[in-house]
């Protein structure tokens, strides 16, 4: 989905506010073209809802918070696995088959999902050789701490993904509402210009909508994206 207009949401809301008294003024003329008496109310209601919706910048901020939490959890898992690696290397010997079973060399290239799987596999491997690792203080409590941190990373990653989905959904919902409002205003403005063309220059100008982020009072009619 994409916006049907090329100016900011704030400009659309501003124009919506300006249109309400104009539509009320010209309701009799607009009714000839099928516009219901509640057209101005519909525009105001949609504009008010759009005005109150959180912007995409808000959801970007929420996503950043979740990403930061995930990064902190990942950093803790990295540190704990690095510590496990060092202890295992000293306890088992770097060239031993038991040490090679862990495949610690893969750590440098792992993404978040992969390191969760790796970490859980490393815990299972360590649990099977606790006697050999005990001299370097790898015990059930040590592995429980690692397991808990991996679970935190897993949860944080799920929350990050969910927030990405929420942001995308909220962005689409806001855009859909804005497009609906834009189409309604465009329809009214096309009709209003037709009504007043060659009859009343000021009334005609009331229905000119400008495709720019500048104030409607600062634009020229050559930028009228909606109606020309």
Folded structure, characterized:
This protein is mainly alpha-helical. The protein has 2 domains: 9-54 and 165-223, no CATH class; 58-164. It has 9 helices and no strands. It has helices spanning 9-25, 27-31, 39-52, 56-92, 97-100, 112-127, 130-133, 140-196, 201-206. Helix 1 packs antiparallel against helix 3, helix 1 packs parallel to helix 8 and helix 4 (56-92) packs antiparallel against helix 8. The protein is rod-shaped, with a radius of gyration of 31 Å. Mean pLDDT is 91; it is low at 211-228.
Q: Topology, pairings included?
A:
Blueprint: H1 9-25, H2 27-31, H3 39-52, H4 56-92, H5 97-100, H6 112-127, H7 130-133, H8 140-196, H9 201-206
Helix pairs in contact: 1-3, 1-8, 3-8, 4-8, 6-8
Give the tags:
2 domains; mainly alpha; disordered C terminus; 9 helices; 228 residues
Number of domains: 2
Mean pLDDT rating: 91
Low-confidence stretches: 211-228
Oligomeric description of these chains? single chain
Radius of gyration: 31 Å
